[in-house]
Structure formats: C-alpha cells, structure tokens
Amino acid sequence: MRRGVRRTTDGGRPSRRRRPPARFLGIDIGGTKASAVVVDRTGRIRHRAGTVLHDRKDPPTVVARILRLVDAGLAARPGSVRAIGVGVAAQVDSRQGLVLHAGNLGWGRVALGPRIARHADRPVRLINDAMAATYGEWRVGAGRGARHVFGLSLGTGVGGGMIVDGRLALGSHGAFGEVGHMTIVSGGRPCTCGHRGCWEAYVGGWAVAERAREAVRAERRSGRLPVGFLDPRARQWTARQVFAAHRAGDPIARRVVRETLDHLANGAVGIANAFDPGLIVLVGGWIAGLPEAVERVRRAIRTSAQPTAARTRVRAGLLGEDAVAVGAALFARDGAVARAG
Amino acid sequence: MRRGVRRTTDGGRPSRRRRPPARFLGIDIGGTKASAVVVDRTGRIRHRAGTVLHDRKDPPTVVARILRLVDAGLAARPGSVRAIGVGVAAQVDSRQGLVLHAGNLGWGRVALGPRIARHADRPVRLINDAMAATYGEWRVGAGRGARHVFGLSLGTGVGGGMIVDGRLALGSHGAFGEVGHMTIVSGGRPCTCGHRGCWEAYVGGWAVAERAREAVRAERRSGRLPVGFLDPRARQWTARQVFAAHRAGDPIARRVVRETLDHLANGAVGIANAFDPGLIVLVGGWIAGLPEAVERVRRAIRTSAQPTAARTRVRAGLLGEDAVAVGAALFARDGAVARAG
Hints:
The structure is a homodimer of 341-residue chains. The first copy, chain A, has 2 domains: 2-129, 2-Layer Sandwich (Nucleotidyltransferase, domain 5), CATH 3.30.420; 142-317, ATPase, nucleotide binding domain (Nucleotidyltransferase, domain 5). Helix content of chain A is 41%, strand content 20%. Chain A contains 12 helices and 12 strands. In chain A, the strands form 3 sheets. A 5-stranded mixed β-sheet of chain A has the order 3-2-1-4-7. In chain A, helix 3 (59-75) packs parallel to helix 4. The longest helix of chain A is centred in the last third of the chain and has 25 residues, at 251-275. The radius of gyration of chain A is 22 Å and the shape is globular. At the A-B interface, helix 9 of A face helix 9 of B.
C-alpha cells in the first residue's frame, strides 16, 4: 500500500518510475583472497567491487571484510543488486547457505549465506567455487549452449562441477563433481584430506610443489644435482615456479611436470568415461601456467577413453579469474528468476 | 474406426470392454546370456519370459533369440505389454536405441531398439545394463525414495549408473556412470579397453581371475607354493572360484581378495566424493560371492571420504539377478507414461 501511494506522488515524473536495471553480485572466496563483481542480466561485468586478502583467516575477520565487499557492490550505480551469489572454496550446504568445511581457510561450519542475506537484505545463494566457475562457463563462457559440461578446476586444489542435462548438479550434500578427491593411485600419496591417492595429491598446485621439493631432495642425496632453475636451497616453491622452471628447461621441473601431465591426463580420461560430459572445460589458475595441459588432456581422451567418450571435447575456460564470481552471480540471477517465476 | 466398431459389437459384455492390465517387458542382455521378465505397473514380476544363452554371439543369431524372448513376453496372460525396455552390457545410444559397442558380445553398432520395436510393434527403450539395474533399485529396490542414488555394478565388468536429483542421468552419449573405466591406478594394469589403470582392471571379475593366476604363477616360480585350494595347474579360474577359495582359507586367494577389497574401497571413496550420491547401491553377481564387500565399502567411505560425503550410505541391492530386466521394464514404463502424459 505505501508503495502504491509513493508511486502516485511520483506520478509526474515517469522516468523515475522505472526500476533501475537489475544487477547481480557475485563473490569469490578462495583460500587466500576474496573478490567480487557486479554483472547485468546478460552476465556482463559492470563493476568490480574489489578484492580483500585473508591475511587473517578467522571467520569474524574474513566475514567482516566480505561484508565490506558486499556494501561496495550494493553501492554500484547505475542498477540495483537483486540477488547475491557466493562461490567458496569449501564443502557447502547450498540449501541452507552454510560453509561446512573450508580446508584452506581452516573453517568448520560457518553460516555465511544467512549472515550476508541479513546484512544485505537480498537473497543469497552459496555454492562451492568449482561449481560456480562451471556455472559461469556454462552460462556465458566456453560451455555456452551445451546440455552437459564438466568444469574441471585446477588450482592449489582440484575441484569440479557439472551441468547434467541442463542443470547444475548439486549432489546429495552440495559436493557433486568433487573430483580432487577421486582416487587416482589406489593406496598412493597421502592427501591433505586424510585419504591416500587422491587426484589432488598428484596434480593440485600444493602437490606439484611438494613433488618438486621431493625430487630436488632425492637428486641432492644422489649427488648428481644438475645446474637448474629450481633453487635447491629453497624450502618451498609454488606450482607456478615449477612450471616456469620447466619452461626454462630445468630437468627436475620437466620431469615433475611430465608426471603431473600424465596423472592429469589419466584422471581426465576417467572423468570423460565416468561422467560422459561431452565437454570438459578447464578452469583455474593452473592452466595459465601450463597451457599445454589442454592439448595433453584432449589427446589422452581421444586416444584412451571409451569409444563414445573419446568424442568428449576439451576447452580452456573463457572467463579466467572472474569465472567463480561471475558464475556465482549468474547462479543467484537464475535462482532469483526461478523464485520470481 | 474399426476398433470403435468392434467395441460396439462387444457392447453386450461390458467386462470384455476393459483394457487388459498394463504390463511392461524388460530384457537383460549380458555377455553370455539374455533373460526377460514381464512386470506390472508396480514393478512386480508377473511372468518370466525365459533365458537364452549366447553360445553364438553374432548379432543375427543373438537378435533372433531375443525376438523369441520378446514373443514369449508378449504372449504372457493376463495383461498386455505396453512398452519394452532393454538393458544391455554395452555402450548405447539411448535416443536412437542403438548398441554402439558391446565388448563382451564382440558387437559394434547394432540397431537393436528399432529392430525389436518393429517386431513387437511397441515402444522400446534401450539403456546400458548398469543404468537399468540402478533404475530398478531406485524404483522398487534398495534405493526407493532417494533423490540421488549411485548404482555400482560389480560383475565380470564394472559399471554404474546414477539417479541425479530424481532423474536417471544418461550423459552426453548414454554412458554416465561408466566408472569401470575411471582411472584408479594411474599408469597401472592394462585394461581390456586399451587404457591402463582402470578400476575394472583391478576389481572386475575377469581381473580378479587374472590377478589370481598371476599370483599363483609367481608363487610357483618362487618354489614356495603352499597347499591351497586354487589348483595351480588350472589355466584359468572365475572370480567366483577365487572367492570360494578365499573363504576356504587358500592363502593366495586371500591375498588377492584383500587387495581387491582395497581397490574396491578406494574407488568407492572416490565415487562418494566425486558423485556425492548420498546412497550407493551395490548390484551385480560379484557381491553374492563376496558379501563382506558391502561392509568394507561402507567403512572405507565413513573413515576416508570428505566430511559430508562420509555420510553416504551403502547398501546391497534387493533385486538380485532381476535388477537389469526389472529396471529396463520400469524405465520403459516411465517413458511410456511420460509420452502418454
């Protein structure tokens, strides 16, 4: 009623009666930083709401910073944010908007979705970050128009998500596509999750760095350490440094990368066979450091997958570092639309 | 029109005007035999249409025998078969009803669905056998009422299917859930599919038998062959014989079974993590020979899967050897219903 009255008093200025254009806020919460974008109905980025680093990872500090990102997104003009999507590097309960377990943040259960919804007075949808990236690539990126897409996320961790028959599969606990913890070497290397032989324990960024360190140590002990680019005195490298050393010709890094690509390809053949997605989109920071991975995965699937799965296409994502935030925003958009309809 | 005329002439006997009760014919085509059942709307088996063995595996011979099974099913009284479902141990194109590749039958492309449909003048739906078994367990077996179910089929081969959010996932090429060719030991044992390290190459019935043979050979070479139940002069055993020898205390069979259960458990942890099904139903002939596998898989998932996936329940199927035929029949029922509605 009050709304109707206000409209009547505005009656003389028709342009003011139009609702401002719809916007959707997407937030990407990773293990070391969070960033946010505001997109329009078509998924085009209209505004970047900024980035914050998790120099402290306790939930109150991180949540307070994320709420500031939310405020910055809500303030963006022109437009009006209708819904908020959150993609988080965690196991989540999408129905209730809960973070259940975020290894890289060291979080247990955090009711992040309801907290943001209260603060922003907007509907909030929270999903796993790899699912968000998959959704974004499906809606406006490399998977546009496909009925099935597997989004494989290669970064510090390994994750995934899948569009099954035109819908994002959430699974029973919001973890569908969590292929980082698919067993790839039965009884193999210990993973951070406590199990052994997970794919992530071979091709995740942390595992690539760890395997490089072990290889350098083994060479050192053998006394035949070649002059290379991996500084043997360093206590740790990042996967990015290992990839750079590989490109520069460091023999240890080359071996580590070759083995990494073998494990990546073997796991990808398994995904093509077991999920039959027709299309795999590779997302995440890893690919920028090792672009040949796309062709390697493509070839392995063509030559080694089951006869029909061998036709699975493989593409690099198109949204780059924005995939999670844009995907989360579009997931919120489509949820809002679904509720409205 | 003719039908209407006939009805009029039957007008004096109202009981004859009723349509006979609806029945659905389900056919299970495996690598060595085919069998068929007729079920009513509730999935109850009303009739068994028989079994035929593939002593010859060429498509014309097998198809002719399957058409005889179809005729026997159509002739079953009372009732009238409304639709036919076919579950086949093969890669299939469900949309067109084609067998694309059936390794155990040695078939390439066979237009089986259209052939049966022409012969029987009924709608025919054709799916992979593990998918059919999953569908059956979901509709009337151990997965009844669940929104998500992964059906893991353990037999000579290893296969699977999944109900995702209340629908059978077919995948891009009708092969969703083909976890037998998920990589479990990257770079490991050669599989019949040409790739290495597939799960089936460790836990499929053929692989269990092959590993037992290798273990006996190795013991023989070492000169310390213990007195056991696995006859070292035999050229081949079946998995069932290996399991029986294990139960009887044969030390080689026990070791082979222990390793098999380890690989089974590690793969199942990967399925719980990557497909997040909430419920895994174990189907196929293997489980009858090694019932402790159910508890072993259950325990591995509880202790080694991701925090949420660790809640995944594990059950043995309830439909036994009828799972594929009953599931195919119900898949045809639901397809027919969907078309009618």
